Amino acid sequence: MRAPRPALCLICSAFLLGSLVHPLAADVIHLTNGGSIEADSWEQSGEDLIIHQDGATIVIPRADVSRIEASPVRRDPRQGERPDDAATPVDESTASSTAAPSRDEVLNRISKLRRRIHDYPMARAENTMQLLALHNYLGERSYLGRDYDDALAQFKAALDLDREDARAQLGQAATYFATGQDLYARSILERALATHSDDTRLLTLLGDVYNSQERPEDALEVWEKAQSLHPDDSVTRRIETLRRQHAVDQSYRRSDAAHFTLKYDGDRAGPELEAEILDYLENRFPDLVTRFDYYPIQPIVVIVYPARQFYQATLADANVAGLFDGKIRVPSGGLRSLNDEARKVLLHELAHAFIAGKSRRTAPRWLHEGIAQLIEGKTTSPAAQRDLAAEFSAAVPPESWGSTFSYPSSLSFVEYLDRREGFFRLVKILDSMAAGIGMEEAFLDVTRYTLEELRRSWGESLLPESGE
After folding, report:
1. Tens digits of residue pLDDT in 90-117
2. What's the pTM value of the predicted model, to 2 decimals?
3. Going from the N-terminus, what domains does the chain have, and what CATH number goes with each?
């Protein structure tokens, strides 16, 4: 039962990290007489330098300029490159700075631009373009910080300025996709591609959405188009994986229930098994909704394979009884009806789906596997407890105890946390990580103890003389 693979963060890899702009700080024009001028933008015209500042234009002889101190942040690329940048003397100590502007600085700049748009109608187009870039920038920062409500608000503000801005459309769709709202994401992307048909970022994200919705042919089509326009290794891997999986399951039957989409080999698993699987999953769904305080918006895809085809499709190790990689994948093993072991596997993988959704795919493997084993009803055996106690006693240095993954240790630690803190606090930790708080900080905030302290206390509880 493999832990979920790290989620593919399309908007980070294909767009955000490569195209954040900071249209905020001004260049400083240093004059030979010792004075200086802050410039929103500037250009060289013959022997003169034309400086734009607060809606006004200043023209000075180029000979009166000693140097131009470039802003440490980049302009929106749609505004073009500055003329003669390569030949301009730059203060390297300033240019080397990469500090991003604070949110308050960006908001102040937005307020200033809105006043300019009102006061200087002749410069409306330029100022609106800068305002659009700033809203997109804030949206991207909020997305990366997992403040999805603010991200959506910022991208909406950008689209209010230009409803066909590809950057804002991509950001809005990616935010909806990250929060499990695939239908909204797909609608935005399909509409955006009507105008930006060759935008590989939009195409790649749409392929991710189609794949999530179990539309493999559509996903392959848009990924292959993106790849033909701009080859990318991450898209190549997506295509190869989906082709391998689809070669196995393309003839499978599909059955839809209230909260699940089930695909299965109808030649080997009859309708009775299909009905049993869906009934079991639907019956367990409300309990997990209550325990995790989380309601999946999209149907959870479940694919049931004959054993050999499971390993062909997933490339999983021979000892893996099921996995969750955004979809639940399990081998049927020739079953004609559910037995207790099959129910445990399904419940374990369903727990992974809830853990991934609740934490927005940030939970570490040990926490995933520990909670999933707890949910399926597994308990740590006395032999495993003795082995873990011996490992704790022999740990050098003591701080290293419990930091490496194993299924027994993850279950034992989560059992200890459940007894000590209660399951609701584990859920709060998942919530904190979903909001962008790191794992160590999330544990400290919720339990008031560091992970190292909790692991040491867990280790002590395993020793024979411990009262726990």
Report:
1. 333 333 334 678 899 999 999 999 998 8
2. 0.77
3. 10-18+102-243 (1.25.40.10), 28-95 (no CATH), 253-361 (3.40.30.160), 369-462 (no CATH)
